[in-house]
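Narrative summary of target 7.
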Amino acid sequence: MARTRNTARKATGGSAIRVSIGAIKGDGVGTDGDCAQTAPAETTCHSVATDDATQRHMAVTYGPATIVNVSASTVAVSLCSRPMELSVRSSLLSHPTLVIHLRLRSIPAGGPMDMVAEILKPYFPNGGFHFTDLPFDIGTKAKLNSYKRQVSRLVTKLHSVTFKNVMVAFTDHSDNSRGDLFIGKTTGKEDQACVLSECLDILLSPFGDILHGGLFVLFACGHRFSSTIAFDAERLQVVLTSNLILGIVDRTFIQGYPVRMAMPEALGESSRLGYHSSVYLLTLACTNSALELTVTKYTWSHRDIRPWGNPLPSQCPQCGCIQVQWERTALPHDATATHGFSCANKDCGKLDGKGPKMFKFARPLDIKLLDQGRRWNSAWLEIGMGMREFPMWVASQLE
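Modeled conformation, tokenized:
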């Protein structure tokens, strides 16, 4: 097989030049045809409809001596003398649902959001589900204008449906030192980034009120969403969030639970994510006089390697010995709430008489231990970060 070489340059995170969107709008750079953003080829929008096979599978004729057709095969004859009745549990109530995946153009398509789309499709045999994969690169004025035109055409199509469930996923790189979000490349192929608020505003504002009240998932280390999920890993591996996202989508969009109720159960299926990142849930509730923003942190805890969510170092800071596993020490009178560990190196601290390095971790206040499931030595912890109220006149300025 002939050896080939990839010549396409892809951004993999790191550092980028900080720019202002305002400068891009009026810089006059990138107006030639080579830099224009071509959209339709990479933008996919799926609408699920009922085909003939599905109709044959679902066909039921009511009445005496009824024949039930399943996939065009006679499988049973009803002996009832009265019309058959379908149980309420056999009906499928699927509200119109919109899922939008915004991703930096240099990031390949796929991942958790494509899995979400594939799982949701079967729940909409009569249509009503729309999934859009929307890559972006707004590094120049020409590319920014092309993105706005692309979204404008999409919004025109979406306005024909009133969506009850809306989910927006945002996949992007962030600058290592400042945390700015990447927005694309200049004409010289240099990565650019801007502050989070400015980036989200320019990308989401063309959608108008379609996104209000939706669920926002930020896959990265203005608009009003009722719930936002974020992660704090320095180099987030999006694939590790798959179980969490699928669990939340199933419990909120299909079973109808609020996000705050769905989160603990979805985390129970996401133990691998706990090694990698903590999860933040931001929910917005409206009262008569104010908007209430509640922030909750979920972090993973393991009895031997992350006691109460605190990671133990892999190397002893005192003797430099690599720790395969820290030795647990006895802590009388408080063994259930406080964990103690000492260095496994028996010679640690002997030279200066300090003794082996030790760590103690007490159970934090106001912490909730979520259901451990099948793992007896680990669990997710729920930590309330507080709630803040915004008066209505302030909230109207934030929208």
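The longest strand covers residues 378-391.
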